[in-house]
Amino acid sequence: MADTLRPFVYWGQKTDQIFLKVDLRDVENEVVKLTESGLTFNAEGFGVRGQNYYSIDIEFYHPVDPEESKYRVLGPCIEFQIKKSGDGEIWPRLTYDKIKMPWLKIDFDKVAYEDSESEKEEKNVDHAEYMKHLEKELLSNRDIEPFPDVKTCYLFVYNLVQFVGFTYIFTALTYHCVRDVHFAFSNTMEIAGTQMLFVQLAAVLEIVHPLLGLVKSSPLPAFMQVTGRNFVLFIVVGQEPRLHQTSVLLILFLVWSSIEVVSDRPGI
C-alpha cells in the first residue's frame, strides 16, 4: 500500500483562533471534517509531490469550536480559520501529541496581526508568550548535541588507534616488500609483529562494545573474528618460530591489515 501523501501545512494562532494554510494548488474534490478534537482533510491537488491525492489528520492540542470556524479554497492554497473553545490562551503546539511532523510548519506571518488600537497591547503580550513557547519547543526538539558525548569520543579514539596501527603494519610491510622481498619474508615479525600483537589484543574490545551497548551490532561476528585471529597469532604463530621465516606470515599480516584499513568500523 502506498504511503499517504501529506501537503505542507503552515499554522499560526491568536489567543482565540488558529490559522492553517494548506500548501496545495488547484484543489478538487476536497473533503473536510472538522470536529472539536481534530481536522481531517482530503483532496486532489498539486503539492510537494506534484498532482496527487493528499490528506492530513490533525488532533488538536485543545478543543475547538467547529460551528464558529470556516475555511476557503484559494488558487494557491486552502486557508482555515478555526475558533478555539474556552478561554483564549496560547497553545505551545498545534497537535495533542508531542510529535514532530515534518510537513507541519510554523506560519511566521501569522504570529502577529493587524489589530485595532485597543488590541495592540494584548497582541504584543501574546506574541512574546508565543515566541517563548516556540523557543522552548525548538530547543526540546533539537536532535544535534553541541558537543560529542563520552561514548562517541571513546569510540573515535579507539577506532583511530586501530586505524593507525593497521595502516602502519600494511605500509611497513609493503615498503619492505618493494625494497627487498626476501628480507620481508624472513623478518615479518621483526617489522610489524609487536604492532600486530597490540592491535589484535585491543581488538578484544570489539566483543565488549556491543555487550555494553556502545555499538548497535551483534557480538557474535566480532567474537568469531577476534578469537580466530588471536588463536592463529598467539597460539599457532607464537608457538611455532619456524613460521616466522615463511611467506605465509607476511601474506597473513598484509591481508589482515588491508581489510582493517578499508573496513567501515562501527561507532564512526
Describe this structure in words.
The protein has 268 residues and is an alpha+beta fold. It is built from 7 helices and 8 strands; from the N terminus they run E-E-E-E-E-E-E-E-H-H-H-H-H-H-H. The strands form 2 sheets. It has a 5-stranded mixed sheet with strand order 6-7-2-1-8, with no helix packed on it. The protein has a 3-stranded antiparallel sheet with strand order 3-4-5, with no helix packed on it. Strand 6 and strand 7 form a beta hairpin. Helix 2 packs antiparallel against helix 4 and helix 5 runs antiparallel to helix 6. The radius of gyration is 32 Å and the shape is elongated. About 3% of the residues have low confidence.
Q: How would you sum up this structure in a few lines?
A:
This protein is an alpha+beta fold and 268 residues long.
